[in-house]
């Protein structure tokens, strides 16, 4: 998720907010910010992975069911 490097310009995308990961924080310095961003990334991956896997499984089942009905 965080290593995505495709070009999204001129594409329509949709987003779903899954959860708020934390409240706003004022950081003492760049190191504290960097450390928190790493924690945020881990938390986002924990939150997104089950949702992503569920969506992929639903898509695969839908494709499988449409092939079987042909």
- The helix content, as a percent range, equals 55-70%
The first-to-last residue Cα distance is 34 Å
Helix and strand pattern: H
Number of helices: 1
| Morphology call | elongated
Determine Rg (CA atoms, Å).
Answer: 18 Å
Strand portion? under 5%
- How many β-strands, per DSSP? 0
Content-based structural category:
mainly alpha
On the 0 to 100 scale, the average pLDDT is 82
Largest sheet: none
Low-confidence residue ranges: none
What does this structure look like?
With 70 residues, the protein is an all-alpha fold. 56% of the residues lie in helices and 0% in strands. It is elongated.
In a nutshell, what does this entry contain?
This protein has one helix and no strands. Helices cover 56% and strands 0% of the residues.
Short descriptors:
single chain; 70 residues; mainly alpha; 1 helix; 0% strand
Layout of strands and helices, then pairs:
Elements: H1 30-68
């Amino acid at each position: 998720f965080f290593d995505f490097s495709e070009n999204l310009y001129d594409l329509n995308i949709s987003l779903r907010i899954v959860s708020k990961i934390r409240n706003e924080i004022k950081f003492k310095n760049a190191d504290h910010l960097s450390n928190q961003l790493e924690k945020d990334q881990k938390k986002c991956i924990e939150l997104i992975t089950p949702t992503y896997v569920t969506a992929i499984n639903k898509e695969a089942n839908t494709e499988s069911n449409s092939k079987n009905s042909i």
